[in-house]
Sequence to fold (271 residues):
Amino acid sequence: MNRPRTWPAYVALAAGALVMIAPFVWQIVVALQTLPDSLRVPPKFTPSWQWSNFAEVFRTVPLARQFLNTVVVIAAVTAGLLLLCSLAAFAFARLRFPGRGGIFTLFLAVLMVPGELFLIPRYEIMVDLGWLDTLQALIAPGVFGAFGTFLLRQFFLTLPRELDEAAQLEGANPLQIYWHIMLPLVRPGLLALGLLTVMWSWSSLLWPLVVNTDPEMMTLSAGLASLRGQFQTNFPILFAGAAVASLPVIVLFAVMQRHLIAGIAFTGSKG
Fold:
C-alpha cells in the first residue's frame, strides 16, 4: 500500500520551529556575551560565557521583589478574571433575560476597541483612588475581560439543557447550578483561560510602566524595561534579565500546552 509522503510537512514544520526558537537562542547567546561582543558588527554568534551577567541583573534592579509583585498580580488577576468571566458567561449562555443578545454583542464590540484607548481614563481613575505605585492599580483593570466571557460562554453552550432542568427540579437556584454543576464541567475552558491570562499578564508592559514608577512596585516586564538607558543599553544585562523572566512562562506553557490547545479548539464546537 502506497502511503502519502509526509516528509515535506515535517521539513516545513521543522523549519518553522527553528524560526520560532531562533529569538530565544539569540537571547541566551547575547546574555552570555560581554558588552563589546554584543555591539560588534557583524554580530558575534557565539557566547563569551559571561555568567556574571545574570548576577548583575539582580544587583541592577530589585528583580526578586519584582518577581514577587508579578506573581501576586497574576494570581489576583487570574482568580478575579475566572470568577467574573465565568459568572457573566453562565448568564449569557444559560439564563434567559431581555436584551441578552444585544448586551452580548456589546461585549464582543469591546474586543475591537484598542486597549490604548482606555489608558488615560484608567490612569485618571487610579489617580482619583490614590492607587498610583500600588499593586491594586495593576490588578483592578485586569479582573474582567470580554474575551474571557466569550471563551467560557462557548463552553457553557455545549452543555445539555437537561442538566439545568434536572437541577431546578431538585430545587437548585441559578447560583447553585453555576457553582456545583456547570463550573466543574467547563474545567478545560477555565484552564485555557487561566493559562492565557497568566501569559498575557506576565508580558504586560504598557500599563505597568504608566501606573507604577517605583522600582519596588514594578512587575518584571516594567523592571526590565528600566534597564534600557537613554543613550546606551547594556544588552547582555538586559537579555540576561529577559531570559530569567521568560523561563517560568516557558516552563508553564510546556507543562500546560495540551490543556490550552484543547480548550481553544473546543470553543468552536458550538456558536
